[in-house]
């Protein structure tokens, strides 16, 4: 087990008039090798849930244990979690800010204090994993790339940190059907070929059941369903 939620609640603006219970009593175990499709309507609690996993948010009640570390811990322990859990936020291409594709993808590994050769090897490897040609793209400005390429640069930046658990929040949002298929294909390969545990946040049941081996449906801050894709369809 790599992530455990124990009776977790998360409340925004606690004790204020605009108090919102975003996560309302979740018990959950995520195992190595899972490919989870996390589904729910807007406002159901998906974003809050994934940010509880890597300690960006701390539970208001209960505990989240990620890679054997309670996310309420501070300092170095939290750093370990951040390195093992890679997070690709919605529209990650908005967070590209370096001058070249190389520098953008190298940003994380540099922060990890890796040496030059290791950084270069990781950038090459990460670009290869998402189908970006290293030689022709490394010196380009990320701003001049196509929408799908920008998104893949952002994903490569997270992959270069060698996450063991990769969480992607709506990675295909705003892409055309071809861009969608491409990204989903690469994500599937990360799971199947490298054994990276994946959480794919989506509001498309079709997308989730096509790829995931476990579907989690969230509603009003609770887990409504946790099952294999086929069972979820039977229950619809
Ligand atoms: P989803 O990702 O499924 O759209 P969220 O986790 O973003 O759901 O939201 C869950 C609930 O928490 C919603 O009612 C939402 O309005 C509320 N919420 C989310 N973020 C904030 C915030 N920063 N401040 C206050 N309420 C928030
Ligand atoms: P690391 O030094 O990167 O932590 P480990 O051998 O401990 O190496 O872990 C390998 C794990 O890292 C794999 O199981 C996989 O989940 C993950 N991983 C992430 N990105 C890559 C990558 N580009 N190449 C190989 N493994 C990767």
Describe the structure.
This is Energy-coupling factor transporter ATP-binding protein EcfA2. Keywords: ATP-binding, Cell membrane, Membrane, Nucleotide-binding, Translocase, Transport. This protein has 236 residues and is an alpha/beta fold. It is 39% helix and 26% strand. It has helices at 46-53, 76-84, 101-111, 116-129, 134-137, 147-159, 177-194, 205-211, 229-235; strands spanning 3-12, 20-30, 35-39, 61-66, 69-70, 85-88, 165-169, 197-202, 214-219, 222-227. The protein has a six-stranded mixed sheet, with helices on both faces. The longest helix is centred in the C-terminal third of the chain and has 18 residues, at 177-194. The model has no long low-confidence stretch (mean pLDDT 94). The structure holds adenosine-5'-diphosphate (2 copies). The site of one adenosine-5'-diphosphate has 12 residues, from strand 2 and helix 1.
Shape: globular
Unreliable stretches (pLDDT < 50, length at least 5) are: none
- Strand and helix order: EEEHEEHEHHHHEHEHEEH
| Bound small molecules, deduplicated | adenosine-5'-diphosphate
Cα gyration radius (Å)? 18 Å
DSSP strand count: 10
How much strand content do the residues show?
25-35%
**Helix and strand composition category:** alpha/beta
Sketch the major β-sheet.
Answer: 6 strands, mixed
- Oligomeric organization of the protein chains: single chain
Overall pLDDT metric: 94
List the strand order in the largest sheet: 6-7-8-3-9-10
Distance between the termini: 29 Å
Instruction: Tell me the helix content.
Output: 25-40%
Can you count the helices? 9
């Amino acid at each position: 087990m790599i992530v455990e939620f124990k009776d977790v609640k998360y409340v925004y603006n606690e004790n204020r008039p605009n108090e919102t219970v975003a996560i309302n009593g979740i018990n959950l175990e995520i195992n190595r090798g899972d490919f989870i499709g996390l589904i729910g309507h807007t406002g159901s609690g998906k974003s809050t849930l994934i940010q509880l996993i890597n300690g960006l948010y701390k539970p208001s009640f209960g505990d989240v244990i990620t890679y054997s570390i309670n996310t309420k811990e501070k300092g170095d322990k939290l750093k370990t979690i951040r390195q093992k859990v890679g997070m690709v936020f919605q529209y990650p291409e908005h967070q590209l800010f370096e001058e070249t594709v190389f520098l953008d993808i190298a940003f994380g590994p540099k922060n990890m204090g890796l040496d030059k050769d290791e950084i270069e090897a990781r950038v090459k490897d990460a670009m290869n994993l998402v189908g970006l040609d290293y030689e022709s793209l490394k010196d380009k400005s990320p701003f001049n790339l196509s929408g799908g390429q920008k998104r893949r640069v952002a994903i490569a930046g997270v992959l270069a940190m060698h996450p063991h658990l990769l969480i992607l929040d709506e990675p295909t949002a705003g892409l055309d059907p071809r861009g969608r298929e491409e990204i989903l294909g690469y994500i599937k390969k990360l799971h199947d070929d490298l054994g990276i545990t994946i959480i794919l946040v989506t509001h498309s049941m079709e997308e989730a059941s096509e790829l995931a081996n476990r579907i989690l449906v969230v509603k009003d801050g609770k887990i409504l369903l946790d099952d294999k894709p086929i069972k979820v369809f039977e229950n619809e």
